[in-house]
UniProtKB/TrEMBL annotation:
Taxonomy, superkingdom: Bacteria
Organism: Palleronia sediminis
Protein name in the entry: S-methyl-5-thioribose kinase
Subunit structure: Homodimer.
E.C. numbers: 2.7.1.100
C-alpha cells in the first residue's frame, strides 16, 4: 500500500486502510470487510490492534504522536516505530523465536504488522495472578545473553557495530524519557511524579542522600554514553508475554545502545517488585510463589552467564578480547570473561535498585503495586522495595551474585 500522510488507525478504519497490505490479507483473510478489529493497547504509548479473520489473526501496532498515558500535551516522535521495527529484526536474528515475527512495516504510518501471540498473556498479569511459567528463566536469561553478546564488538565487526550505533542514535526522544523518568525524577519533586500516601519519610530519606543521587547519576552517565550493546531498553514483566510453558519478548521501542547489564537489571527489579507485592495478592500464603519468583531471578542470571560463556567460547569474532592475545599465546581468556561478567552484574544490580525506585516514585507505576487498593498495605510493601533498592545502589559490592540478591530480598520482605 502506498503510504499516505500519517493518520492514526481506529477499529472502524483499519480494515479499509490496510486491505491492500498483502501479507495481512494472507495471514488474516482476503476479505478485509470480514476482519474483526479490537484495540487492546494497555501500554503507555501506542495503539495495538488485534485483527482477526477467517484465516488467522495478526497484530497491528501503531505509534501515536504523543504519550498515550499523559495525552497530547506530551508529544513524542512517530519515528520510534522505525527503531522498534529495527530492534525486532535484530532480536529475531540474534535470538530466533524470542520475539513476534514482523510481517510488515510502514514508516509513514509508524505501524508494524506482526505475529499475534496467543494464548500468551503479559507476564506481569501472570505474576499478579500467581501463575508460573515453565522455562521462563532460561528463555529470558538466554535472550539477554544473546542480544548483549551478539549486539556488541565481542561478536560484531567493529565498523558494522559503529554504523548501527549511528542508526540507533537517531532515537533521541525515547532514551530522554528513561533518562529523566528513571534516573532523575524519583529523586526530586518532578511534576509528573506520584507516590502512595505514607511513603513520605522513605522518600525524604532517599532525596537527602547526596551519595545515593551521585551514584545514580553515574549510572545515568553510563546509560547515556556507553554503547556496549544494543539494549531492549524496556525489559520489564509488561514487555514479556507468556503461556504456562513459553515466553516471548515484545515492545522494544526504547531500544538504544547502552551497558550490557541494563536489560537484565531492569528485569530483575520488576521480578523483585512482583515478589514484594505478593502478600497483597496471595493472601495468607505468598511464600511458595515468592520462592518461585526468587528462583526465577537466580535462574535468569545463571542462564545469562552460561549462554554468555558459551558464546564467548564459540562466537568471539569481534575486535574485543581476540584470541591472538589469549588462547594463541597459550593462556585462557576465562578470567577476563569472568571479570567482564562481574562488571555486567554490578551494573545490573545498580540499575535494578534505580528501577525499583522509579516505579514507585515517578511516572508509570507498575500494576503489581498499583492494584493494591489498601494504600496502607501498599505503602508498607513499597517501602520494603524502596529500601532494598537503596541498598542495591549504595552497596552494590555487597551483592556479588544472584544468591546474595535473593537473600537480601528475603531479609527486606
Ligand atoms: P506499548 O508500547 O504501548 O507499551 P506494547 O507493545 O507493550 O505497547 O503492547 C501493548 C499490549 O498489546 C501488550 O501489553 C499486549 O497485551 C498486547 N500485544 C502487543 N503485542 C502483541 C502481540 N504480538 N501479540 C499479542 N498481543 C500483543
Ligand atoms: Mg509495552
Ligand atoms: Mg507500555
Ligand atoms: Mg512500549
Amino acid at each position: 500500500t502506498p503510504s499516505q500522510e500519517y493518520e492514526p488507525l481506529d477499529v472502524d478504519s483499519l480494515g479499509a486502510r490496510l486491505a491492500g497490505v498483502e501479507i495481512l490479507s494472507r495471514k488474516v483473510g482476503p476479505d478485509a470487510s470480514a476482519w474483526r478489529v479490537r484495540e487492546v493497547g494497555d501500554g503507555n504509548l501506542n495503539l495495538v490492534f488485534i485483527v482477526e479473520g477467517p484465516v488467522g489473526t495478526a497484530v497491528v501496532k501503531q505509534a501515536l504522536p504523543y504519550v498515550r498515558l499523559v495525552g497530547d500535551s506530551w508529544p513524542l516522535p512517530l519515528y520510534r516505530a522505525f527503531y522498534e521495527y529495527h530492534a525486532l529484526t535484530r532480536q529475531a536474528a540474534r535470538d530466533p523465536g524470542s520475539v513476534p515475527e514482523v510481517y510488515h512495516f510502514d514508516e509513514a504510518q509508524a505501524l508494524i504488522v506482526m505475529e499475534f501471540l496467543s494464548p500468551h498473556v503479559i507476564l506481569r498479569r501472570k505474576m499478579i495472578a500467581g501463575e508460573r511459567v515453565e522455562g521462563l528463566a532460561e528463555r529470558i536469561g538466554t535472550f539477554c545473553a544473546r542480544t548483549a553478546f551478539r549486539g556488541s564488538e565481542l561478536s560484531m565487526e567493529s565498523g558494522a557495530k559503529k554504523a548501527d550505533v549511528g542508526l540507533f542514535s537517531g532515537n533521541v526522544e525515547i532514551p530522554a524519557i528513561t533518562e529523566s523518568l528513571v534516573f532523575t525524577d524519583p529523586y526530586f519533586d518532578a511534576e509528573l511524579n506520584s507516590h502512595t500516601p505514607g511513603l513520605e519519610p522513605v522518600i525524604a530519606r532517599l532525596r537527602e542522600d547526596a551519595a545515593l543521587k551521585a551514584r545514580v547519576q553515574r549510572m545515568l552517565m553510563s546509560f547515556a554514553s556507553n554503547t556496549e550493546t544494543l539494549l531492549h531498553g524496556d525489559l520489564h514483566s509488561g514487555s514479556i508475554m507468556a503461556t504456562a510453558t513459553e515466553a516471548r519478548v515484545i515492545d522494544p521501542e526504547f531500544v538504544q545502545y547502552g551497558p550490557m547489564g541494563f536489560d537484565i537489571g531492569m528485569l530483575i527489579a520488576n521480578y523483585l517488585m512482583a515478589f514484594f507485592s505478593q502478600p497483597a495478592h496471595r493472601g495468607d500464603d505468598p511464600a511458595a510463589y515468592q520462592g518461585w519468583i526468587l528462583e526465577t531471578i537466580e535462574g535468569t542470571v545463571a542462564s545469562f552467564e552460561a549462554e554468555f560463556a558459551r558464546l564467548w567460547t564459540t562466537e568471539r569474532t569481534g575486535m574485543l578480547f581476540p584470541a591472538c592475545l589469549f588462547e594463541d599465546q597459550g593462556h585462557s581468556s576465562e578470567p577476563a570473561m569472568k571479570a567482564l561478567l562481574r562488571d555486567i552484574w554490578s551494573d545490573a544490580v545498580a540499575i535494578c535498585g534505580i528501577e525499583m525506585h522509579r516505579r514507585c516514585l515517578s511516572l508509570a507505576h507498575n500494576a503489581d503495586f498499583q492494584e493494591i487498593e489498601d494504600t496502607a498495605l501498599r505503602a508498607r510493601l513499597e517501602a520494603r522495595n524502596l529500601m532494598m533498592g537503596r541498598e542495591l545502589i549504595l552497596r552494590t559490592e555487597t551483592v556479588p551474585d544472584a544468591r546474595a540478591l535473593t537473600a537480601m530480598a528475603r531479609e527486606f520482605n
